[in-house]
Amino acid sequence: MTDALLQISALEKRYPTKWGGPVLALCGIDLTLRRGDFLALRGPSGCGKTTLLHCVGALLRPDGGKVLIDGIDPYALGSSARSAFRAAKVGFVFQNFHLVPYLSVLDNVMLCALAGGPRSHLETQARDLLEKFRLSHRLRHRPSELSVGEQQRVALVRAVAGGAKLILADEPTGNLDAENGGILLDQLAAFAADGGAVLMVTHDPAASDRAGHRRNMQDGRLTAATNDSDAN
Ligand SMILES: Nc1ncnc2c1ncn2[C@@H]1O[C@H](COP(=O)(O)OP(=O)(O)OP(=O)(O)O)[C@@H](O)[C@H]1O
Ligand SMILES: [Mg+2]
Questions:
Q1: For residue 145, which of 6, 112, 125, 141 is within the disulfide window of CB 3.0 to 4.6 Å?
Q2: Residues flanking ion ligand 2, Cβ below 5 Å
Q3: Among 176, 225, 227, 199, which Cα is nearest to 40's?
Q4: Ligand 1 pocket: which residues have CB below 6 Å?
């Protein structure tokens, strides 16, 4: 058994356009993340970072190449099996949180926890996670009643509540101040140290420094990381 949680090989994605040839968003990406890896991905706007996260997260079918998560190709599954697989394996954290505004913190977290146990069990799990992420004093708040740092931590708890081992984060500190960004990065690092893997797109130098590995992206290709001790 391999400890690779994510293996991407020769990944390609083209977006058709009405006015001309397709946009080549991903042009042959190879990347492996092992349990414990926390990788920061940097690159100029439009180079394909979000497209890569969507293809990796079983949200957007690539045009070529392969994605294996825990050894399984999600695009070989039917759409409902792929949704269930995604819910079990992948957690997403976005710049704008995407919390459900009319649900409490506790219900937002429980919403994404996989069904399969009684509500009391899910609730106990959600409360435990929220305590771990320093949110147990905000269980009944709505997202609009939280600070932005708290909202992002709820989004992170929700991402891991289903038991996901791979977190895909797109500019997760983009809306946070330095202190809240630091807390979030500590928690992403702790998640990886606990046997998960994190692929984080960021423009934030502090976030990039906090990750264990760094890669750059340019015109749909991964390039060597700059200012980087990582030889991944
Ligand atoms: N649905 C789409 N149709 C056509 N082109 C698209 C579509 N989505 C993205 N693109 C193009 O694909 C390229 C990669 O987009 P992507 O969103 O992955 O970039 P990004 O690196 O995440 O940029 P940013 O840092 O601004 O978020 C861009 O040139 C973009 O214009
Ligand atoms: Mg993007």
A1: 141
A2: 50
A3: 199
A4: 15, 17, 23, 25, 43, 45-51
Residue 45 lies in a domain: yes
CA dist 153 and 132 (Å) reads 10
**120 belongs to a structural domain:** yes
* Residue of minimum CA distance from atom 1 in ligand 1: 15
Strand, coil or helix: 139:
coil
Residue to substitute in 17, 19, 47 for testing ligand 1 pocket (most ligand atoms within 8 angstroms of CB)? 47
CA of 223 to the centre of ligand 2 (A): 17
pLDDT tens per residue across span 44-61: 999 999 999 999 999 999
| Residue 231: inside a domain | no
CA distance 208 to 227: 10
Indicate which CATH number applies to the domain containing 112.
Answer: 3.40.50.300
pLDDT digits (tens, 9 = 90+) for 207-225: 999 999 999 999 999 997 7
Q: Is residue 16 part of a domain?
A: yes
| DSSP string of 200-213, one letter each residue | EE---HHHHHHSSE
pTM of the full structure = 0.91
Q: Which ligand is nearest to the CA of 54?
A: 1
- Which atom of ligand 1 is found nearest the CA of 44? 25
Query: How many residues in total does the chain contain?
Result: 232
Residue 135 pLDDT grade (very low, low, confident, very high; cuts 50, 70, 90): very high
The domain in which residue 84 lies consists of 4-223
Which residue minimizes the CA distance to atom 3 of ligand 1? 15
